[in-house]
Structure formats: structure tokens, C-alpha cells
Q: What sequence folds into this?
């Protein structure tokens, strides 16, 4: 059966987010500075907390309800070499799940959604109707607060 | 309504329940500390300015080594004052340009870079 949102698309969640970082194995540069992107975009930034097991996803944000997310990024907080994985699940559908190549630079990482250039915020609201789940992983285990995560969302 | 719970790793999780019924669980960790990666980076112009009273003597030096150092500096986007080759280059300049004293060299390398001294690189490359 057709629904209106199929055609207007305004509140329809995406099936996939494709960008420069959506294919695992991508490299990042020292000037990417997603932490600054988060700050300049007005995003909330948090440390990753305890991540005891390598390559295991840990939940940062879990929303049960409708809303939209327009900024999401992850970065390293030290120069220890590790890969960084971010998974974004909207309405139960994994729309982004990608792992960087090894990053050995402090404050380097990538943006999943949003960003800014020359002080101009480039926000891309992505809607969800039922749920939004942000999880991250590191290739190293027994780590605490070695990743920073920035996100910005609203609820309906 | 806001409550707190603990996740499987012992970290606090902030649970916000909105009147609409939406429930938000957020890892309750502080923001990452701000680390400035360009605190020792200085724009090229202000780097020259740090030569102070010896600036013109250095810039007009006929010494081939000094000329090479200045040419090298000019093609850089910025100068990292923590780099060993910057310190050794300044040491060399001091051996051939009498006006470039040890005190000037030390001041160039150790005076904290002000926001005005790396405004361009921050705007162009780190914003």
C-alpha cells in the first residue's frame, strides 16, 4: 500500500548514507579536525567511555522515538594507531557502517553527517520515525575515552 | 524527566523521557578536552617579525645558507617552532649574522604563539 511519505519524502529515513567515508578502509588527514567541525556546528561532543573489547560496537546515543539527526562525527583523542568505526542505525536500518584505515594522529577522524567550511555550517538533517542508534568501535581494546563523538539531533 | 542508569561497561547513561514518549539514552561522558594542534605553528610573516631588530640583517644576508633557509621558509604554509630543523636553522643563522643573537633565537623558539601570529593558518587550514 502506498503512503504519502513515499512520495513527498520529507520524513522518510534514508536507506543508506554515502559519502567520502562510507566505504571502509578510507584514510583521513590531520587537517580533517572533525572535533572542530562538531564545535562549529554546535554539536554535542562526548568522550567514548569504556570500550573494553576491540572491534566491538558501543552505544553512544540511543533514541526511541521520532526526530532527525544532522551532525555525526568521530575522532581520536590521542596518537595511538587504531581504526575507528561508526555505525548509524535509523528505524532499525543500518544506514552507515564504516571503518577508517588506521589513524595515528590526535584529533583526526571523520564526519558521517554535517560539517562546515569557512565557518559556514553545512547541516544535513536526516529523519527517523522510530529510532536512532549511534555506536562506535575501536580496533584496540581496553580503552577508555580514546574517541570523541560529536552529534546533533532533535526529536519530534 | 531525566534519570541515570549504568551501561554494561560501568559508564553512566543519561535517560531523558519526553512528554511525547520519546526516550533518549546518551552516554554521560564529558566533552573531549580541547587540544590545540597548532599551538606551536606560526604564520610565515609573524615568524619573520620575531627576528625583531635582526630581521633586515637576516633577510639581506649574502650568505648562501641563510638565503636557502629564508627561501625554504617562504614556501611553507606555516612554521612549526617545535621542529628540530627550525631550531638548527636559527642556530646556523646566528653563526653568520651577528645581529641575530642567542636571545632573539631563544625568544623566537620559546615565546608562546599568539592568536594573531597564526590567524591565517587557522583560518585557512584548521577551521
A:
Amino acid at each position: 500500500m502506498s503512503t504519502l511519505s513515499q512520495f513527498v519524502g520529507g520524513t522518510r529515513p534514508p536507506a543508506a548514507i554515502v559519502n567520502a567515508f562510507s566505504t571502509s578502509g578510507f584514510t583521513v588527514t590531520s587537517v580533517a579536525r572533525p572535533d572542530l567541525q562538531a564545535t562549529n556546528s554546535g554539536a554535542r561532543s562526548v568522550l567514548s567511555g569504556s570500550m573494553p573489547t576491540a572491534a566491538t560496537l558501543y552505544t553512544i546515543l540511543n533514541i526511541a522515538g521520532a526526530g532527525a539527526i544532522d551532525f555525526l562525527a568521530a575522532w581520536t583523542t590521542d596518537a595511538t594507531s587504531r581504526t575507528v568505526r561508526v555505525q548509524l542505525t535509523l528505524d532499525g536500518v543500518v544506514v552507515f557502517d564504516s571503518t577508517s584505515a588506521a589513524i595515528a594522529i590526535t584529533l583526526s577522524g571523520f564526519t558521517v553527517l554535517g560539517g562546515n567550511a569557512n565557518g559556514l555550517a553545512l547541516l544535513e538533517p536526516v529523519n527517523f520515525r522510530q529510532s536512532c542508534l549511534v555506536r562506535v568501535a575501536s580496533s584496540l581494546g581496553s580503552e577508555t575515552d580514546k574517541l570523541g563523538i560529536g552529534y546533533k539531533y532533535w526529536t519530534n | 524527566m531525566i534519570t541515570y542508569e549504568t551501561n554494561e561497561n560501568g559508564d553512566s547513561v543519561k535517560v531523558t523521557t519526553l512528554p511525547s514518549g520519546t526516550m533518549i539514552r546518551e552516554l554521560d561522558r564529558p566533552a573531549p578536552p580541547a587540544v590545540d594542534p597548532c599551538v606551536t605553528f606560526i604564520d610565515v610573516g609573524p615568524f619573520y617579525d620575531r627576528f625583531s631588530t635582526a630581521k633586515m640583517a637576516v633577510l639581506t644576508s649574502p650568505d648562501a645558507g641563510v638565503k636557502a633557509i629564508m627561501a625554504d621558509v617562504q614556501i611553507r604554509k606555516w612554521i612549526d617552532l617545535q621542529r628540530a630543523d627550525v631550531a638548527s636553522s636559527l642556530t646556523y643563522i646566528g653563526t653568520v649574522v651577528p645581529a641575530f643573537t642567542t636571545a632573539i633565537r631563544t625568544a623566537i623558539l620559546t615565546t608562546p604563539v599568539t592568536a594573531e601570529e597564526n590567524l591565517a593558518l587557522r583560518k585557512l587550514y584548521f577551521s
User: Anything to note?
Assistant: Chain B has six helices and five strands.
